[in-house]
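Batch manifest line 487
LIGAND: nicotinamide-adenine-dinucleotide
JOB: complex structure
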Amino acid sequence: MSIFRVERQVNGVAHLVMDDSSRKVNVIGEPAIADLERAVTVLESDTELRGVVLMSGKPGSFVAGADVNGIAAVTEREEVHALVRRVHAVFGRLAALHCPTVAAIDGICLGGGTELALACDSRIASEEEHTQIGLPETMLGIIPGFGGTTRLPRLVGLSTALDLILTGRSVDARKAERMGLIARAVPAAWLIEHAHRRLAELEKRSAKRRRDRYRARGFMAWFMDVSAAGRGLVLSRARSMTLKRTAGHYPAPLAALDVIEKGAGRAVDQALVIEANAVSGLAVGPVCKNLVRIFLLSERAKKDPPVAEPSPAPAPVRTLMIVGAGVMGGGVAALASRNNIDVRLRDLSPDSLTRALQTVRSLANERARKGKGGARALDAQMARILPGIELTGVRRADFALEAVVEKLDVKRRVFGELEVRLRPEAVLATNTSSLSVTELASGLARPERFCGFHFFNPVHRMPLVEVVRGRKTSDATIVTATRPDSW
Ligand SMILES: NC(=O)c1ccc[n+]([C@@H]2O[C@H](COP(=O)([O-])OP(=O)(O)OC[C@H]3O[C@@H](n4cnc5c(N)ncnc54)[C@H](O)[C@@H]3O)[C@@H](O)[C@H]2O)c1
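JOB STATUS: finished
ARTIFACT:
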């Protein structure tokens, strides 16, 4: 089965197309590596070739990353090491082809996909929203080990490389262009045309100068990214910030810093040896195994049906009623309003309501400072929340969440007030941490539409909600609570 196709074009350029027909998205695992070895041999033997465009055969999706199931399964350090070195070798052959190479990225390009693209001389990417480029490996307890830890600093400079590798965040094409990660962001429709143009530009350069590489712009950038004193400063600051953030529990970001430090100033081949040693140890360690397990479980939770098939259709949730504007109610109000849900927020205490609105505003401000959403988005978000001390507007709610104090009798009173006002098809939920959902449901007129909907504190940092089924909770309630039509 072929995963990579070599398609010779009339102008002497070859398209190296990755398209794994057995999968929805391309991933870099052993079968892909074996097939890349075959495809690169074909390219190497074509001495007439003027250039290679690496692309995906899957519309709107480049390469999702390394095969995470493979990482989960491997237990022997030597096995990881052998595979990593094999990847280094074949990516190295791609990097050393006699003609220029350009990766044309459209869609998700993460981890091993980014590392494959980094082996090319240059990269261009589509400006579409679905194009996201990044190296999320440290979030899985490893470092970018298919050449990313070595090649990225040489392309974008030390500071930018640390930002991307240590946070694991991905960036769109425009940001990638500003960082120097790609040469150009272009509309998707012209991606391949631009890739050919880029090849023509590279063809004019001598083989030695063909590869895009970091050039410090200005004294400050030179000092931080190039000078020995500046680099030492940047690395030691990154190390102490990482230690502070992780309390030393996560070895991967620290290993990435070590590999970058030790590899600096060495030839790529020598630096890759250091990279391979580091990633092989991490990949079989307990932190990696646990982080990969969490990743796989959350992927499964997104896909597995929450109830037996055929499952009822989920109802849309456009308006959320929250009763109790304390720590949790305020946090949920912030999350829901940010996700375009209209929120009615009710509390007996005006002070609680004021504090909750302050929380929403300060969280939105924090996001704006990180470049996510501007002043207009903040105003729109605030306008979506209607606070009040009276229980009004309940009939409009598709979902009502109780987040008052942890006392059975107080909660029961709140349910009583809500039930008589809620539409029959609306969901009624509790954020209780410790009380029994079945017990809380007793006395309700419609226990089938009641469930536990347990957020964790702080809501904006904890990407987990526990949906709890009571003895009488219906499938329809569970489906709407886990996967609403419009959440
Ligand atoms: N704080 C946590 O870490 C956490 C985590 C998960 C779940 N929970 C659960 O979430 C719920 C709320 O916890 P919290 O920490 O936000 O509490 P909190 O004390 O911060 O807030 C409770 C709010 O409910 C209001 N309230 C009390 N009775 C009311 C009523 N009859 N009508 C309207 N408002 C009323 C209070 O004025 C207060 O503002 C509890 O069930 C708790 O077990 C808490």
